[in-house]
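Shift notes (night). Ran Hydrolase while the centrifuge was going.
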Amino acid sequence: MVLKYFGHSCVLIDDRILIDPHDGGSIGLPKPDIKKVDLILVTHDHYDHNAYQIFEYKDVKINFYGSLTYSNYTIKGIKSYHDKYNGKLRGENSIYVLQRSDGKKIVHLGDLGHLLEENTYKELYGADVLLIPIGGVITINFKEALEIINKISPKIIIPIHYWIKGHYMPLDPPEEFLANLKYEIRRIDLKNNLIDENVEESKKVVYALSY
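Came back to this:
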C-alpha cells in the first residue's frame, strides 16, 4: 500500500485512487504532482476538495454513498455532515472507507463537522490508516479529533485540513493536536510526502507536515 499526502485533505492511494484533490493555487499550497489516476473520490463539492478537472482520470465520485468495488478495493461512502446542524450550514460530507483485498483499511473523514454515532464508529474501528481533520473553524477541532481517534484506534494517523505556512485558509495549526496525541510523530513535507505503512506492531504513528 502506497500513500502520498499532498496537503489539506488530498491523498493518493496506490497511485490509482485520489481523494479530495485541490488545485494548489486557490489555497496557497503546491499543486499535487499527479498526472493520471484511475478513480477520484470527492468527500464534498467545495472548491478546496473538488479540483478533479485538472487531472486525467477514468471515473469520479462526488458525495458518494453506498458501496462499490474498484480493483482490489471495496469502497464504502457513509453520509455525515460538514457541521453540527445536519448540514444546514455547510452541507453533507462523505466518509470513505476503503478496504483492500489484503485486509488493510483506510478511512478518510473528509470535512467532518461533528462527532459520530456509535454505529459509525463500529464501521471505522481498527482502521490501519485514518485521515482526520483537526483544524477546527469549519470542521471538528483537535479535541474532537482526539475523541474520535480514541474510539477508532487507528494504527496510522494522517491529520488533514489544518494550517501550515502559506495556507490561505484561517485554520488552526497542528501543534496542540500533536502535543496531546500519544503517537510517535513522523514529519513529512509536500515534496517528501510518502507515508510508510510498514509500522512495527507495537507502534502507532502520526504523519504531520513540517510546520
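The first strand starts at residue 3 and ends at 5. The domain at 3-209 is CATH 3.60.15.10 (Metallo-beta-lactamase; Chain A).
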